[in-house]
Amino acid sequence: MPSESELTRVIVKGKKRGYASGIEPKENADGSKTLTYSENGFDYTDTWYGSDSFGGEEVVRFQGIRVWHMVYHGGLTKQKFDKEKQFAHPKQIFTFLQKALSHVTETEPFRGPSEFKEDDFVYRNTVKGDINNFEGYEEILFNGEVVHTAKYLGGRVD
Questions:
Q1: pTM reported for the whole predicted model
Q2: How far, CA to CA in Å, does 9 sit from each of 52, 73, 109, 148?
Q3: pLDDT for res 88
Q4: Could you read off the pLDDT of 108-127 as tens digits, one per residue?
Q5: Among 129, 94, 97, 90, which Cα is nearest to 111's?
Q6: Disulfide engineering: 142 pairs with which of 88, 101, 116, 129, CB 3.0-4.6 Å?
Q7: What CA–CA distance (Å, rounded) separates 51 from 141?
Q8: What dihedral do alpha carbons 126, 144, 116, 10 form, nearest 10°?
Q9: Which helix or strand (DSSP H or E) is residue 13 part of?
């Protein structure tokens, strides 16, 4: 079984080199999308369905055995496109989400940081627990309006 610090390091690397990086995911036959990262016997996989409304799972395996997982579900709450910038376009929202998630750290290895701001966007993330057992909630605000929310939970498995 890997140590907590080894596991945390791989989770953070996988997240930063996965969805947060903006790289194109593999499209699967069942309609899901997958991104992977591997190093030193660890395999990190992020697989999700949907786009504006989405659900997925991140899994870490060590020497082929699942040792950690996280499930998540969320989506856009506002889908209006505004010429006067009252609401953001979905592409802007998800680009901002990728930026926020790229700020994941080993002290907060679940989604993004507790808060991240850029221009008219604010990302907020609250989490209870630790790498072994946790649950959390994230939201994105644009001009003070909530435009995206997601819930997640997970931890070690044996």
A1: 0.90
A2: 29, 24, 8, 27
A3: 72
A4: 999 999 999 999 999 999 99
A5: 97
A6: 88
A7: 18
A8: 50
A9: helix 4-16
